[in-house]
Records
---
Amino acid sequence: MAYKKRFLENNILSNSFFLYLSHFADYILLLIFLPFIAHSLGVEEFGKISLAQTFGIFIILFFEFGSSLVLTREVSVKKENRLELDLLISKVFLFKLLIVPVAIIIGLLTLSLVPIFNTNPSYLLIVSIGAFFQGISPSWYFHGIEKMRLIAYSKFFFRLLCFLMIFFLVNSRDDGWIVLLAYSLSSLFICIHLIFQLSREIKSLTIPLISETAEIYRICRNSFFISTIPVFVQSIAALFLSSIIGPAQLGYYYGASRIYRALNSLFSPIGQAFFPNIVHINTINEQKAFSIARLLLIILTIFGILLFLILLFFSDQIVLFLLGKEYTGSSNILILFGAVLPFTAVSHVLGRQWLVVKNKDNEYMRCLILSSFVFFICFFSSINRFGAISFPISLIGYEIASIVFIISSFVLKSKLS
């Protein structure tokens, strides 16, 4: 009991554990069930549902509108003032409802422009509904008050039910829609559960004026672009890739991408656990906050290098185990995705941790925009020659450019000072 008490009192340690449990539900459970899903659906159908989920990720970020960064920071700062916090919650939910028509327009444009969705419109509808509920889910609030366990338990339970539904109901290569529906239903129930928990925290709920939601746009705007620019750029590239390469190549790409995303997600729990702590300490002792951020940089960089080495030497075995013989073409793509991981670790700490903590959202956004141009240049100049491999190659260029631009902004600020 004493160990348990000390563990729960150590915010960074306990938050890291619960955030890893949360990401386990989102990504590692997927890896556990991935062999079954990949084998049951086949390469082509697997590629189609993965493309639909790529669109869903963009819609999730659109509805989150930067809340995972800025609103977590706002809650962390205001958590002692219940009145201000309740007003903030009201404004956030009203704002997210107001942007629903924009999301519908984006969905209709995607439906008309992407050939795969022309023949599978139900895929787009299902992922859009799930993305809406995941996007309005108040995870940002519980991150800010450091109650990560509520998110973790909710995600683990409902995502597990989702994968059990997939395991028992998916029987043929025509059942891709069941996979998408199961994901969307789990997002719906997670959202309902977290909103219920949030309602127990609220002391005085008020309905703000529509004009008051402009504050949410103002404080989240830069964070929205920070969160959305990389995903938007990569989603556009993935949609374009789907029209250039064959269905089998698309399946190979998404097979490798699923494994890469699961490994890449391992950085987030550590970063999210450190983030509220660094924000709070930075208001008291900037030097101590910098030391914690530097420690995080060292931990994540070493972790990223380790993951890359594992993929470099064991990619064939990993693909064979998780995806099966049908996906052997994913191996080389996976190695290149692995090379991205150490660079992602560095850019994550320099940008999403330190620059955001220091309220340098504008500088970070400019770095991401410039890096996105580098990504597009690499992607469109290499796609005809390298096909699906051009995506991870461009991602490496993107992450290196991000690091260079962020460090350059530090150097420039130092010289001006």
---
Amino acid sequence: MSRAKEMGRVATLLAAALLSLAPVATAATPPSQFDDFQSGLKLAVQAQKAFDQGAYDRAEALDEQALPLFERALGPEDLRIVGPLASLADVYRTRGKLDRAELLYRRLAFLMEKAFGPSDIRVSDALASAADAVVGQGHPGQAKELYARALAIRQAALGPDSPKVVPGLLTLADVDAAIGQFEEAASLYRRAREISEKAFGAEDLAVAGPLDGEAAVETARGRLELAEVLYRRELAIIEQAFGPSNVHAAYVLDLLVDLYIKAGKYGEAESLYRRSLAILEARFGANHARVTAFREKYAALLLKVGPEPTARREAPRSSTAGRPAEDRGSVVR
């Protein structure tokens, strides 16, 4: 489940708990206020059901009707509207309307800060969700401040060495890497790795993600020997967790192939390429599009540097885009 969906569901539960404080029909309560609240609640329930069923367009329409009703009934800065706000933000994010989602997540952060203080961990969650929306719009540099503030709150609340701050460290490191701030990114990945090693052990799967990120930025910095050491450690962890013939191991082998080609170590690259290819063929079949793409990618890499690769002679006639993103995400995050 994404952070946005988690944020929405947590906020909805919080709102539900607080709805016991909602206005009731008394002589002092304007009938229109009570009617707005009741109508908004019905729409919110229908919207949640539509969202759970994947009917996101209907969920959006219902949530957009519900929110102004809650605002009229409770006030635009009442904490009890966090549920409707988060639900609509989730729908906007799911439907790719990230600019709208960002505004609502920022508003959630404001309400949480007003209610619980600027150091509350719920403020961190809302800020991180807003930052995710900013990144999704293609502006990682603009998201950095939000991620940094979210991380600082979590570190203050949970302690700087808590494993629960590792996702925030990795996210901020990813942003630094995306905007070319490799030294800062390497430091954050290293810190995440050290925390994970201390908490779970040096060979635990939780260490693989920080190792992967750290190796990638060290490669970008031209520190290929260090990157090789880091990738080799990641590979050992993956093989221990999933076995040497798992597709996750093939992913790391592929990264090492790229590294060796950059370093001019074509023999090592060829050996690992064949090992990775064997894993992919066993998993997907020799003629699968993913295997085809892998063969042609390797051939194209070597074409840039000159040697005649065996892979070029074996490359199938068709190709698709490179490795799907889930291969990386399922291993390193």
---
Amino acid sequence: MSLRDDLAGVLARDPRYSIHAYLFVFEALEHAKTLKKRARRKTKTRPSSSGGSRHVSGRELCEGARSLALAHYGMLAITVLAGWGIHKTSDLGSIVDNLVNSGDLERSPNDSLTDFDEIFDFDVALRRDFLLSLDDVI
């Protein structure tokens, strides 16, 4: 069975987000794990022995999603995400919660849906790197 088939039940229970939003969150999760691993290498710190090395926090996932959206969609990132139903970081949390409830993701005992609340303002975080001066346009 494909991931698309696996997500059919999730989409039926919560139609606010398109399948693309769920696929983006899976990709953002992997991206956030990669960013975390790189940061650990830079500081030469070891993952904890509790097995939490592959776990990312709500903040880390949101930052990974921001980074990934800008890398993939550039100036259109906010428009693309909005088209999928993602307008704020709490939407990312709702998608993760849906995936946890369906058994597609797991949460740690310290995880909470509120971990995704107001991590950053989408309008600021997804547009700030694209200010163009008139000299650049002309």
---
Amino acid sequence: MNAVRIPRNVLQAVLLMAACMAELIPGAAAQTSAPESVMSATNEVSSVEKAGPPHDPYTTGIVTGDPNGTEFAAATEIAKLIAAHQVTGPHGEVALRVVPMAGGGGLQNISGVLTLADADMSIVPVALLNDARAMPGLNDIREQIVYIAPLYVEEFHILAHWPIESISDLAGKTVNLGVKNSAAALLGAKIFARLGIKVNVVNLDHSAAMSAMRAGDIAADLVLSSKPVASLASYDSLQEGFHFVAIPYSPALKEDFLPAALTHDDYPYLIGQKSINTIGVRSVLIAYNWPKGSDRHRLLDFFVRSLFSRFPELKAGSHHRKWREVNLTATVPGWSRFPPALRWFDQQEIESFLSKWQTGAEADRARLYRDFFRWREHSGGG
């Protein structure tokens, strides 16, 4: 079934409920030229529909959150990886350009993929993507969104004053969950609700939250990002009077979250030799489910082949260490994988099999390919 853009009246209700206050961050614009401001997906409700084709038929955008966060770093490294292997034409033209689009993250990432002309992909927590299925007007999101591959785990960090010894000590106190409608704010609220801990929520960015912590206006700050978070790693527990509070991996959290830990190696000035238990959430690279045979579908097909074939490079060198824990072949229950991505894995499996078979008959190899992919198409796998 071909994906259909959400009607304006339905999406308007969703976006107003989400109230995703976002704008293209100037600091990000200095690093990359975004094809379209993420702001138009949420703040300018009258223009949320996809109006015409993308600005550049060879550019695909990845909607991310804060440019200081893991999402933007990952999208930037993907963009650089693709660019490094491009073969340009006689006038410097390229067949594929990937552009990170910085915004508010959270629900805005999902709405950006559904509405922005140049935003084909995004990186979002799986738990947040699952929650979006229950939002009014998004009943067909499983048909509109596909996933390319699961990525890394992002950890929850709770930084609190020393008198706070456990997460239950935060009951009745003021806690910052991050910018409103960000992934941290939405999932952080779910964590406290699941644990039965009532806190007074404020929604500040990290810098403002730390100022409020020092002034004694709030008791704790929750941060969702892949460890180590550079801004947190610079804090000294003895000088600041802050420390990490553990989040127990209770049965109430198992449906959406994963067990994780923060260690001395992650934060040498905040953690001693004993690690701090916490929880994390898996992120996933999602894409709009463009109709098969469309130009955007073919562009994403090319993107997948380019990324997957060069992915080992991201696990080496000076790239973000979180790439090393990514298993591209893992699945995301309840969601369909982008068919060209599935096809790429199938092709690698066939190549491995044929290399062991050691046949020199190209006709036999071609027949096996045709038979396999014909079976795959008939079985609904793309």
